[in-house]
Amino acid sequence: MSDYEAYSVEVAGVRRDLRLFAVKPGLRIAILNILGDTELVQASAKALNEKLKAYRAELIVAPEAKAIPLAHALSVVSGIGYVILRKVYKPYMGFALKSETLSITTGEPQTLYLDEKDRAQVKGKRVILLDDVISTGSTLQGLRLIMDKAGADVVAEAAIFTEGDRAQWENIIALGHLPVFIDKD
């Protein structure tokens, strides 16, 4: 086991130590990786479902990849379906809608794609945009753009955590907030 600096959180009754990761010199973030963490995913889905019931959504929309288990678990507890926006275009996706985002963890542009088969599922539907962590808002902006192009009605935006400038995320339904860590030299 390696030593690393961590930030402790409790969300939906589950405690985790999140590893601090440098995204650029002098700036670190706490990394939430829910892939394979069934306990945290299920607890978060149940807690988010309670906060989202009043929005009467018909569909959950989330980006690939870390938000997939959360979208699935929320779908199970809420009884509504979900659609995943992919990061790589595949020929079987047909006439897919797309938008570009910038990842805070990689610093690289990423493209989100709504598969042609899923366009009919979102059109005219009341949707929740869902992610594991909302940090810069770039992915959220990409999700919104595609939903607008597809004719969906975004009724709520949700995440396990928001991160960074808390005031910027006052309309996000979240279970907690993560600070950013600025190193002082």
Concise overview:
By secondary structure, this protein is an alpha/beta fold. It has four helices and eleven strands; from the N terminus they run E-E-E-H-E-H-E-E-E-H-E-H-E-E-E. It has helices spanning 38-52, 68-78, 116-122, 138-150; strands at residues 6-11, 14-24, 27-30, 59-63, 81-85, 97-102, 109-114, 126-134, 153-163, 173-178, 181-182.
Description:
The protein has 4 helices and 11 strands. The chain has 185 residues and is an alpha/beta fold. The chain has one domain (34-177): 3-Layer(aba) Sandwich (Rossmann fold). The strands form 3 sheets. It has a 5-stranded parallel sheet, with helices on both faces. Strand 1 (6-11) and strand 2 (14-24) form a beta hairpin. Helix 1 (38-52) packs across helix 2 (68-78). The longest helix is centred in the N-terminal third of the chain and has 15 residues, at 38-52. The chain is globular, with a radius of gyration of 16 Å. The two termini are 28 Å apart.
Which parts are unreliable, with pLDDT below 50 for 5 consecutive residues or more?
none
| Gyration radius over CA | 16 Å
- CATH-level-2 architecture: 3-Layer(aba) Sandwich
**Strand element count:** 11
β-strand percent reads 35-45%
**What's the CATH first level?**
Alpha Beta
Main sheet strand line-up: 5-4-8-9-10
Helix share of residues? 10-25%
Shape: globular
Tally the helices.
4
Keywords, please?
four-stranded antiparallel sheet; Rossmann fold; 38% strand; five-stranded parallel sheet; 4 helices; alpha/beta; 185 residues; 11 strands
SSE topology:
Blueprint: E1 6-11, E2 14-24, E3 27-30, H1 38-52, E4 59-63, H2 68-78, E5 81-85, E6 97-102, E7 109-114, H3 116-122, E8 126-134, H4 138-150, E9 153-163, E10 173-178, E11 181-182
Parallel strand pairs: 4-5, 4-8, 8-9, 9-10
Antiparallel strand pairs: 1-2, 2-3, 3-11, 6-7
Helix pairs in contact: 1-2
